[in-house]
Amino acid sequence: MQFPLKDILTLRQSLADEAEISLPFTLSKCSILSQVIEQAIPGPPEISQRYLYEYLHLRINRAEDAEQTTYGLNAAYVEKLVQYVGFQGIQHWLTAQEGLKDRFYRQLESLTGIYDCYVRCNSGQPDLLKSPVRIYHNGKYTEMEMRGKVRTFTGKPEIVQGCMFALLRSDQDKQFHWVCKVGNSLSPEVIQYIFSGISSGGDPIGGKGLLIKTAHSDIRKCTNEKISLESLSSGTNERDRLLYAYFSNTNTTRLKISGVSTFDFRDLNAL
């Protein structure tokens, strides 16, 4: 059966993500993937190491190099592969791929990639915090991932009236809500956003931030940094000067409530 090559490449990435292995596939990675698929969905046809390496590495790479638009695979094997990544079957998977052609899905698709995320340090110190952010398709929907020094936050973004909303949760009871201005743009270089969440001390906080597109392809190779605003103000790089101008005023970059102790009007005396 012939499938759009792009859809099979997306399926390959979904298989890798589900099994927590990285591309490109090797024989050893295909052995791991074969085992987890067979454990999750036993029965024929067998998704062997040889099949995965032959059809989802060697042959598909040749098809991509040849700029093919379609790619042939046995439907029974595809049925089992799409079930492993969470679909009911081929028809459910194909319908989802068609959904990606919707305008909002196309725009989300254009936002995929690795970004540098900048926010002003919540402590009030004159520093910026830079963290890597990844927006990607897992084969069923778009996901966003932000990697902090201690926690990793994930969520499913959606676009509503020109803004991308995302609730990013960690596995340690901490979360942030982002509203990013994207308009009708495709593949923007810089995205401005507003965030709200809780501090390490459990207080409500908010502010504005920036997502700046990078050329990175692997978020694991990106690092977290604390950057002095003073170093940006004295830099010769125009990007550094613009970052300084955007984040230098704490009154416009950070938002937090006053101290709370009595939970009545007396707390407002601290304003």
| Low-confidence blocks of residues | none
Beta-strand segment tally = 13
The helix content is 25-40%
Give the SSE order as H and E letters: EHHHEHHHEEEEEEEEEEHHHE
Question: Mean pLDDT, nearest integer?
Answer: 88
Distance between the amino and carboxyl termini: 68 Å
Rg over CA atoms: 22 Å
What is the beta-strand fraction? 25-35%
The rough form would be described as elongated
Structural class: alpha+beta
Q: Biggest β-sheet: count, sense, barrel?
A: 11 strands, antiparallel
Helix count from the secondary structure assignment: 9
Question: If you had to describe this structure to a student in words, what would you say it looks like?
Answer:
It is a single chain. The chain is of the alpha+beta class. Helices cover 34% and strands 29% of the residues. The protein contains nine helices and 13 strands. Strands 3, 4, 5, 6, 7, 8, 9, 10, 11, 12 and 13 form an eleven-stranded antiparallel β-sheet that branches. A two-stranded antiparallel ribbon has the order 1-2. α2 (27-40) packs across α3 (49-65). The longest helix is centred in the N-terminal third of the chain and has 17 residues, at 49-65. 22% of the residues are buried. The model has no long low-confidence stretch (mean pLDDT 88).
